[in-house]
Amino acid sequence: MNAEIPVEHSGRILIVDDSAANLKLLTDMLALRGHTVHPASDGVSALQYARTEHPDLILLDIVMPRIDGYKVCRFLKEHEETREIPVIFMTSLAETSDKVKGFRVGAADYITKPFQSEEVMARVETLLALRAVQKKLKARNVELLKANHDLANVNKALSREIAERTQAEAELKLYREQLEDLVRERTVELAEANRHLETEIAERRRAEERVTASLREKEILLREIHHRVKNNLQIISALLHLQSDSVRDEESLSLFRVSQERIKAMALVHEKLYKSKDLASIDFGEYVENLTRHLALSYVENPDRIVVKADADSFSLDIEEAIPCGLIINELVSNALKHAFPGGCSGEITVSCHVDGDCMVTIEVRDTGVGLPSELDLLDTETLGLQIVAMLVRQLRGTIEMKSENGASFMLTFNARRGREQ
Fold first, then answer.
1. What are the b/e assignments for 236-257, b being 16+ CB within 10 Å?
2. pTM for the model
């Protein structure tokens, strides 16, 4: 019997799928990791459960009878009591428009069928961790609001005291006989008011210290999230490596290796974010140098035969831009290393990254190898790696140009500032 595997952030998870087999598979998988799972076979029963029980996470199929997953997600996001519950869409739909539609109705993530257990667990546990952080921050915000309310009440009391003092000073002019008594009384009152004011100042300073501590804690939590995402990606890469030991077919081994390199390219972004002071962006020039060095060590057996070098400016990209760019560079460099120098030929591969004053980024991968096939069309190719490149270029809202002169050249151009504004 398999023992239950504990996780740091266990939670209550609602799974919605009209497939009994998928429900059982996911229920067993998540329950084994210590989560409390409620299965639902249709959207109506899922909505009823979500509104009454408020689960921590919802795994939601898109194509279902009666009411599809898009409508279920839209209903959840329209009601305050279910709006903050994260939703992961599960579907076999592979079109980008389907994914975009899912994110627009409020989904937090997207899992493509058939399921990969480690991917499911990584996404589920990451969102549960974020949900736990969100609840903690919400509780902190409630405490701060209460503190602000208390401060407002004290300010009102001080305002009333100041008004009373003003009135007393006017009365002093009219009643000079009572001047000494009034001065003594008001002196005592003023001293008390000053003590209250000093107490209020001390309270405000403590409130500022709490806010500062909360911001530091948020930064630490965000670093920890990037660190854990990087570790999870490295675990996935290690699992692929272990699985490849049992594969004898060379083509399959190559696919395992390509997948590992893609995962390492993404993991390197999260590692840079974890070490970055900004936490929202990385030095992309440094990232490119590290990535090309890693690819050279992974693929090049004789460095004297094939030289891989980087020519990159130092500029910042956020995670939404850095990961697609890293994957594009990974695909183009690894493709050149495998195909540009057949039969022991020697040559050079250069990765250039530059940015102008309008935030227009240009990334070029060129080699001095045998060049590209004349019939190659990047927009209509059966090669998975180039299909991925084309998809990522569309994601960046950029353009890519191919040339085959004295080798092969791919030049990607996109506006980084436009991506951040959107």
1. bbeebeeebeeeeeeeeeeeeb
2. 0.45
